[in-house]
Write a structure and sequence with these properties.
The chain has 252 residues and is an alpha/beta fold. It has helices spanning 6-15, 24-32, 50-55, 67-79, 117-130, 211-221; strands spanning 38-42, 59-64, 87-89, 101-106, 131-141, 152-158, 164-175, 180-190, 196-207, 223-230, 245-251. It is 25% helix and 35% strand.
Amino acid sequence: MQSYHSLSAEVYQLDKPIGSSFGDVEYYAARLQGGQGRILEPAVGTGRILIPLLQQGFAVQGFDPSAAMLDICQQNLKTSGFESSVVFNGQLENFHAQQPYQAIIIPTGSFLLLDQDDKAVLALQNCYQALEVGGRLIFDVFFQHQFKQGESKVKTYKTPQNELISLTMTSSEIDYVEQVTTTHHRYDKWNIAGECIESELEVFKLKWFGLAELKRLLQQVGFSEISMSSDYQYLAAPHNHSEIISIEACKR
């Protein structure tokens, strides 16, 4: 992976701790309500959504390709009183389920990390194969309204050990042909004496999709009953200024 190494994962945990929500935790819990089957969250990250769902009684498992994110997720699971074995290492492009799932969820735009068309198609095919008949895939995408090539921003985060992590984000490239943006992240950790004790560089690529394009891909894979919802309001029509678009598709 070119992203989500140790400092990146640490910042994610500081910035988006368990219990924080952008409306996504509540939305996914509502959409999954009434189901009794197994649920899978690929790209589970630190467990920000998985753990609240477990706390509400859902039978959720998850995987992530980032070892650093999984380490934090497993620690969060133990702290919350759950078995760390509910998460494992895996990738959307090549996972195969041993038993079918009733639902697969990919919140907060993690699907856009699949930065090539063939990866996205493989992921959708794998999700389709992993679902039981009648099962649903629910995932989020977003438009990249705010991307401005050449722009840099800096954020800082204080750790429980009173260290400081600075994150410099530079919007480096936008490829309109491949529909991919590239942002370069530099993480620096500073001790209380003001010395830099660790640094990390990250190449962060995101692919965007047109909604009609996504619908065609889902249909080609075999999904039906495809719906789209804007900003965590179920069936609210997407528009040019939507921050998040949630897509739901069914295996029949």
